[in-house]
């Protein structure tokens, strides 16, 4: 019994240098693919380091979904099934940052 193809797993590192900094990550996906994304940030305090936000956009610049914050941490996650094939974009930003912070983005496309 085969389990099918393995999911694509991506781990990327980035940073926010100020509250206007934003990073975009492009990827191709097929209709029916499930996308799961988490951001883990290196903040020391929410007061000065803010909280990251993640958004999913399609190739026509339409916002598909915003990430959520779980009840156990202030790290955002996004989990959705894509409805069409094409190019998608993840937008990562930290509008509350007062300095520079680093983050790790972990994404699974299955």
Descriptive notes:
It is a single chain. With 110 residues, the protein is mainly beta. Helix content is 4%, strand content 55%. It contains one helix and nine strands. The chain has one helix spanning 46-49, and strands at residues 8-16, 22-29, 34-41, 53-58, 63-66, 68-69, 76-81, 86-93, 101-109. It has a five-stranded antiparallel β-sheet, with no helix packed on it. Strand 6 and strand 7 (76-81) form a beta hairpin. It is globular and about 40 Å long. The mean pLDDT is 84.
In short:
The protein is mainly beta and 110 residues long.
Which helices and strands occur, and which strands form pairs?
Blueprint: E1 8-16, E2 22-29, E3 34-41, H1 46-49, E4 53-58, E5 63-66, E6 68-69, E7 76-81, E8 86-93, E9 101-109
Q: What's the main sheet like?
A: 5 strands, antiparallel
Average pLDDT taken over every residue: 84
Q: Radius of gyration, Cα only, in angstroms? A: 15 Å
**CA-based shape:** globular
Low-confidence runs: none
The secondary-structure element order is EEEHEEEEEE
Per DSSP, the total helix count is 1
Give the CA-CA distance, first to last residue. Answer: 19 Å
How large a portion of the residues is in β-strands, by DSSP E?
A: over 45%
What structural class do you assign from the helix and strand content?
mainly beta
User: What level of helicity do the residues show?
Assistant: under 10%
Strand order of the largest sheet: 1-9-3-7-6
Total strand segments: 9
